[in-house]
Design brief:
By secondary structure, the chain is mostly beta strands. It has two helices and 22 strands. The strands form five sheets. Strands 1, 3, 5, 8 and 10 form a five-stranded antiparallel sheet that branches. The chain has a five-stranded antiparallel sheet with strand order 2-4-9-6-7, with no helix packed on it.
Length: 358
Amino acid sequence: MDPSAVNTNVTVDDFDSVLSYADQSVWETPDPSSPSFNDTNSPWLMGTYHKTEIVGAELSFNFTVTHRCSGPAIYVYGHAGPSYGSYSVQIDSFSANFSAYTPNNASTPHLLYGANNLTYGSHNLVLRNLGTNKGETGGNTFLFDYLQATIQVAPAGASVSNVTYEEDNKALTYTGVWGNNTGPVFSGGGTAYTNAEGASVSLTFNGSAIYIFGDKKNDHGLYTVALDDSPLATYSGISGCGGAFGQTCEQQKPTLQFLASNLGDGEHKVVVTNLAGVNASFLDIDSFVVTVPSNYIVRPLSNDSSPFVGSSSSSGMSASPSGTSAPGNNSNSAYPLFAVSNPVLLLALALCWFIRRW
């Protein structure tokens, strides 16, 4: 971690497509499109969570060189209480077990795991429900709400700004057949959508980081993202509720479809392509947000066997959640936040710590 650099905490909600659920059917979550859904007073980020009682259920977050997003810190939030059991946190090849059991329901957001000593490199996080082991107190419940990953967007002394490209911006190039939706929760009031195989949207930009947002629904499917010469990455736009293909369980509030950081000075190109398949599944694009610094630096990625700085073993996993500090609460670490004017980015990035204090 370079505390003198310009760093930001990227918030990844449980519905975001940059997360992967091994089996969506073993998780339950509120339906954001239900008439009774109301996230105004919800303790959960954007009113949703993923909860399971199935032992072995898992989810992963791959912040790797595939999409050039890497960083030295990560924090995982969920819930704890008398019905909760054990879970494992695996970062790369190192794993440790923790317990979410507490005699009373914990306050939210509850920190399940945190580490601020990760190497600046490619990492894969896997959360796995272990349930109640023999002799333990608690149950088989595990709940995931959101996570935060710290990334560097500029070197020390640089200023940064964010440029938002709404779906109708002339800088975007569309191929294939696309339509448009409007709605009060969309960034800029609208989205572009397609269910055509191979339909794509691209943006050529200059910046050190890029975020792509869109909505999710059960009639959505797979899509790919190509950034410069990085390997093609595939994501799922299927709703976080799971279930059969159809017009159900829509999350219209912008979800994070792709992110990349550690980009150098010069021109970059990102292309998002719909894989409609036999169902003619949809892809929705809300906006692209690009971080533009006054100065650039590309950090070399670590190839150490351990994901933890100064550790050649799993000792970096030994800190319990209750003893791990979160961003903004650790006097030994600096997490400077840069000002953003885009309302979607206010929701998705580092200001989460202000809007999630109830």
